Amino acid sequence: MFRSCWILALLLSFAVPVYAVPQITTETSPDQLTNTARFLAGLSVPANSTLAPLENTLTWKSHSRSFASAWASLDRRQIAKVRTWGNQELANIRKSSSSIFYPFSGPDFLYVDAFFPQGRTYILVGLEPVGPIPNEDTATPESLIQELSSLRSALNTVLYASFFRTNDMKVDFQSRGVLPSLFVFLARTNHQLLNVEYFTLAKNGNPQVLDATQFSRLSKKQAHGVRIDFTSGNPNQIRSLYYFSQDLSDSGLIDHPEFTAFVQKLVKPITYLKAASYLLHNTYFSKTRNLVLAQSSAILQDDSGLPLRALNPKLWDLHFYGSYKGTISLFKNKYQPSLRAIYANNANVKAINFPIGYGFAMGSSNLLLAIKK
Length: 373
Description:
Layout lengths: L4 H10 L15 H11 L17 H32 L1 H6 L2 E4 L6 H7 L5 E6 L14 H21 L4 H7 L6 H10 L3 E10 L5 E4 L1 H5 L7 E8 L7 E7 L4 H6 L1 H8 L5 E4 L12 H10 L2 E4 L14 E7 L14 H9 L20 E7 L1
Parallel strand pairs: 1-2, 1-7, 2-6, 7-8
Antiparallel strand pairs: 3-4, 3-5, 5-6, 8-10, 9-10
Helix pairs in contact: 1-6, 2-8, 3-6
């Protein structure tokens, strides 16, 4: 979705075959889950962990240094600024809801947590498979080279350009799924994992827990995903991340009305949209577009989310940030003259000091905050 040479060079430098991690049961202890997440994230684990000896390998040490450098740069360039901006501009809507709905997210917990750290329930949705739960007990020095390199490759563009590149996701997540990436984001945002459960949905939208064997036999025609319970250190404040592997087109929602029922049970969720390929501009995504408009108490998005015409100013208070001069060439047919006019003529547009979405070059990113009246 972009043609920057330095991003391409980084992608090629990390390209390796994907290593499939064996799956384990969903009854793994919280300590094991957290240790696995920390290990994958390049963070040290307790000395009594079965992964501790592997930290002495050159492969893990190199991985740890690579991630430490990437995350330090990311925090300076974007995440710290996103959090500061959110504290200033999103304080009121953060108080209004603890449910965050993030369509077209892939495994991007990193940015939704940065914008909305108050969330108690996060619903992420992408086409990528869930995959097996990473297993700390089967890692070997030989497997680490492919395992950790493929993980860096999968996370490369989101660390450097704030979003996952769709074509890369088709390769990076096909065998391993999104769970390793979610584990890394949770560990790197200082969370402790408590539980991981596969699920499907009943017709009324209620989740039904599955073990690993049941999940592996689940028909693709059934709505499904994974739930990760986690905490920020306070055991009395358990938070949950739901990831759905779900087609959000009209045909996908017609086939899975139980997913719509699940979202409709959320209490005034905040919807976040970033690098969403302008899919909600299309007629064949009208059901998700209408679902977002009907359910959301607020929407934070870049211009790739809902088209401006969908946000009736009689129903929504609209706040504009950053700069909008057009789209990247891949989406030139999604240019919005009405949005350009607002940015050109509205003195109330506020600046942002961080790149986000497809306009990852500084000075070409935008955000729109819509608050339901």
